[in-house]
Amino acid sequence: MTFESLGLAPALLRALVEQNYLTPTPIQLQAIPLAMAGHDLLGGAQTGTGKTAAFGLPLLNRLSKTTPVNGFRRPRALILVPTRELAVQVADSLRGYGKHVRLNVTTIFGGAGMSPQVEALRRGVDVLVATPGRLIDHMERGTAKLDEVQMLVLDEADRMLDMGFLPAMKRILAKLPKERQTLLFSATFESQIKALALEFMRNPQQVQVAANNTIADTIAHKAHPVDNGRKRELLVKILSDRHTDQVLVFGRTKHGCNRLAEQLEEAGLKAVAIHGNKSQAQRQKALRDFKTSKARILVATDVAARGLDIPSLPLVINFDLPMVAEDYVHRIGRTGRNGMTGEALSLVSADEAQLLRQIQRILKDDIQMVTVDGFEPLRPIRMGSDAAGARGANPRGPGGNNGARKPGHRPHGKPAPRHATGHAGPQSRGPGGRAAGGGNRGGGSRQGFSA
What we know:
This protein is α/β, with parallel strands linked by helices. It has two domains: 4-208, P-loop containing nucleotide triphosphate hydrolases (Rossmann fold), CATH 3.40.50; 219-449, Rossmann fold. Helix content is 34%, strand content 16%. It contains 15 helices and 15 strands. The chain has helices spanning 10-18, 26-36, 51-64, 84-97, 114-123, 132-141, 157-162, 166-174, 191-200, 231-241, 254-266, 280-291, 326-332, 353-363, 385-391, and strands spanning 41-44, 77-80, 105-108, 127-130, 151-155, 181-186, 205-208, 219-225, 247-250, 271-274, 297-300, 315-318, 342-348, 367-372, 444-449. Helix 12 links the parallel strand 10 (271-274) and strand 11 (297-300). Helix 2 runs parallel beside helix 3 and helix 3 crosses helix 4.
C-alpha cells in the first residue's frame, strides 16, 4: 500500500515524495485511516516506528482543508510532548510534511526565553507543539489560548507521566474544547494511560504495532562487569578501541554526565554533554556537534532517551544502568533503527546487579556478559541462586543496590516477549536480522546470566 491510497492531500503527497517517503510503516497504515475518519485513537508504538507521520499527516490533512486567516490566529492543533528535543524534532517533521501547505507550526518549551515564544504566538499559529510545563506558563499569562483547538495529540504519553506531568496535562486538557479529536501515542498502555484515555477521549480506537517493552531484534545486548571505580577507565578503552563509531553514552546524574564528558575530553576523545540543566542553546549546540561529527561522543541523562533522532547510531553505552528498567528500553531505542543493526553495551558494577536482573526480566533474555582482560572486577556480579544454578554465576545470591525507584516512577508491567517491532520505515534499508552478540574486542572470557 502507498501513501496515495490513504487519501492524503496532493500537497502532502508531493512533500512525502520529495523526502523519499514511499511506503507507509505499520503504525502509519493502521493509524492514518482511523485518524482521517475522525476517530479518537490510542496508538501503541515505540520511537522509530514512524509515529510522527502517523499523527502528523492526518493532522495536516485536516487543517489544510481550511485556509487559515492572515495575521493572528489561535492554535487549531496542539501536540504535547515530554521534552524540548522531541518538540523540535516533531515540529521539524511537520514542517517537512507540510512544506507545500500554508500552515504555521510553532514550538514552546522550557529552557528558552518567553518573549520570542510570546511573539510567535501573537503572529498566529496553526499547530502548536509544546511541553506541558511551559504551556501552563503561557496559559497563566494569557499568551496561549486553546479554545479553538480541533485536534490534540499526546505524544509519548507514558514518558510525560513518568516525568510527573499528569497534573499539568489534566489542567491543559480541561481547557480544551470538548468537541475535538484526540490522538494518544505511547510505548506502553499502563493503568494511568488507560485512565487518562477514559477521562478525556471518546470511544477511542486502538492500534498497536509492538507489544509493551519490546525491543528491536536488530539490537545486540552485551555487558562488561567492572568495579565502579574503574568504569571510566574501561569506557576510555572501549571508545579508543572503537574510534570510528559514533556513540551515545548514558549517565545517571547531570553532574556525572558533565564530569564524564570532561574526563573523556582530557583523554583525547571529543565529547559533549546534554542534560536538563543545560540551556536550550547549549543543548542544541551539543546535538548539532554530535550529529555533524564535530563530537563523536554524546554523554546524556535520560532526558535524551526520547526525542533524539539519529538515523544510523551504531552504539549506545550505559555507563550507569537506569534506576527504572523500562528506561533501558528507551535508551537503547536510539540504535537499531530503520532496520539497521545496533549494539547496546552496559558497564555493570556489583551494586547494579539487581538493576541488571530487572532489565533482563523485561528483555526475557540473557544479556551476554563479557569480562574485559585487565578489568576483572574485585567484587563479582551477584545475580542470585537461580542464575548461578543455570549459568555458573557467583552463587552467593543478590547483592548491592535494591533497585528502588525514584518517587513518581511507574511500577513494572508484566514483561512481554521480544520480537521485531516494525521499525523499518519508508527509508528502510531493508529488514535486519538479530545482530550477533559480537566478540570481546578487548579480549577476555564470556559468561551468561539469566534473570
